[in-house]
Amino acid sequence: MHKMIQPKVTLVGAGPGDPDLLTLKGLKALAEANVVLYDALANEEIMKYAPQNSIKVFVGKRIGCHEYSQAQINQLIVDNALTYGHVVRLKGGDPFIFGRGSEEIEYAESFGIATFVVPGISSAIAVPAYQGISLTKRGTSESFWVITGTTSNRNLSSDFVLAAKSSATVVILMGMSKLSQIVSLFQKESKGETPVAIIQNGTTPNEKIGVGTIDTIQEVVAENNLSSPAIIVIGEVVKESNQLKGFYEEFVAAEIKL
Known about the structure:
Number of helices: 8
Radius of gyration: 20 Å
Order of helices and strands: EHEEEEHEHEHEHEHEEHEH
Family: Belongs to the precorrin methyltransferase family.
Organism: Flavobacterium taihuense
Shape: elongated
Distance between the termini: 83 Å
Keywords: Methyltransferase, Porphyrin biosynthesis, Transferase
Structural class: alpha/beta
EC number: 2.1.1.107
Strand order of the largest sheet: 3-2-6-1-7
Strand content: 15-25%
GO molecular function: uroporphyrin-III C-methyltransferase activity
């Protein structure tokens, strides 16, 4: 007698890159997976927690290189759940922060499949933290914005106009291709001296960082050959990081000499 297949989908946030930042709940879900569908931002080291006999499919997307369309991924989730049982959809960071996780859950639920969500540590918070950047700090920043640099129609989010006027820390995901536009918006608000950090491949051994100001950050990017995937952090809290404040002390000293 064949065991009845119980279709189930668990959406798991893999964290920002360091495999040790996967949650215990995420690890337990992976250990019970029949199928794992994982994306480009999920560290492949995490796959060792899935059963050896589980089916593992890379469905990653990068700028200009899509292994599968979102519609195909949605269908893969459903087809595998109905055929094999428990599907873990492993996504970088937190699946509900610019990860289209809600779309995948809604699609699975439309087929009557049980769904569960395991939150992940978002790169928007963890990557700055690894550089000692506290997104909020008493007396410096009362709030922070997390904005996508590129919307679904490939344009810059209209929220940047408001963010540039704010005193909040601004954290930008997927914004490297729009950096010049972002810089222009902040310069229009006379914020050329506002500190900026750009962190590429944050929390991984390949991490690279460039620090500067709104006026200088594009030169910093060119000098350090920074590219996606990267987090952009704009705000006074950047220069208050113990790891980065030395740069800004040198920067101010150089300005005084000029």
